Please model this.
Amino acid sequence: MNQTIPHWLEKQFELNPNRPAIEFENGEVLTFSELRKESRQAAAGMKELGVKAGDHIALLVTNSRQAPIFIHAFSYIGAVGVMLNTRLTPTELAFQLEDAEVTSLFAEESLYQQGKEAIQTTSLTQKDFHTLEDCPRLSEESELKSTLHLEDPFTMMYTSGTTGQPKAVVHSYGNHWFSAISSALNLGLSSHDKWLLCLPVFHVGGFSILMKNVIYGMPISLFASFDEDKVNQQILHNQVTIVSVVTVMLQRLLDNLEERFYPSAFRCMLLGGGPAPKPLLEEAHDKSIPVFQTYGMTETSSQISTLSPGDAFRKVGSSGKALHTADLIVEAEKPGEVGEILVCGPMVSDGYYKHQERKSPWLRTGDLGYLDEEGFLYIVDRVKDVIISGGENVYPAEIESVLTGIRGVKEAGVAGVQDNQWGEVPAAFLVMEPEAEADVKEMYEYCTLHLAKFKIPHSFHVVKELPRNASNKILRRKLTDTLKDGE
Model:
């Protein structure tokens, strides 16, 4: 049975119409009543342009004022929002537009050229491409949805598999609903809470905060991007109580904070995006900053395991236990041994668009971890060879595919190397054709045309051969051995 609930923004309009919903960097504040009104007007305008229930509508948007308005507009129509990463190249965007069977693309004016280039090699035409600014705002109409069916699809967000081929994770309304509810049960919720959102809204981590905003009736501060000084000012002087960050952001906040301390009202620095260095966690502990490590992925609609407030300092380095309504096990022979992490729960997506759904309720994450004697999860490594760079997943196979398109490159392998700023960055290891020369500048320029900036290798190394196993698969973890040996 497809259970229904009142539309979450309609419910906040009923309960808290004049409560601040979103604060922006320029000081503007939208109440829940104003957010509802503008979202409904945008929805009516989208319908005028031909958008209908069930359509796959791509959104190319930054953390702008328009972002939450159009995200909620999708839900009022019943369309599925395909959230596009603004850092991708037009070629990468084009693949996702085609793969997701998008019927319309909406982009911010500042991203118009990027969107225009992306549709050139797709089935979309100029009439299917609209800027958010040009979308008509029409009077509200009764045809807009007042309820949400929890099993209906709401969003699609791309994540790459270990093959490097991006796949669209399909999230239902129920996935987002239970993710928000489980987080509140774990972290608690205060009438004074204000969540600062500086993660990209096209990522599930940032998007999930927009969901908490309308499900909890909690105000959020929406920032265009991360700026350590501005974020610290918000915590110190603007009553922000919760911030979501990745490791590199936490480090910058600590460096900027210097000798200052956060007020006692600040109660949670939610840290995700991969394992964090223990010295960094200890530094935060020394500053009495309540860092709650969390574990999650796009497939789990953000966090699925988080360290609870009572254990934040006692279990430094742990990602806690599975959230309420979720379950988590480690597939290992003995307790305490490292093994693959498996998760299940109503916040876990049923699968990927145009791919076979899972037959088991358990999702095999491919991530490695262990449970201590009290059942607390510790993450050991990420999915096979995935590189975690500044909170972004970087997939070697995708980069290798691009590198082998460069003239003179016979084989390519990519692995992560440690970086003080980003945690890890990709490094390329190349086997060249006989008599071919490695032109690093040419390689970098080629990658710039085909890869997002965060995927471009930070270094290029010519090697005689790539380490492989008996199945002829590249042993990426051994690639960096050549650096230790001085190449």
Observations:
- The chain is about 30% helix and 25% strand.
- The chain has a mean pLDDT of 91.
- Residues 32-48 form the longest helix (17 residues).
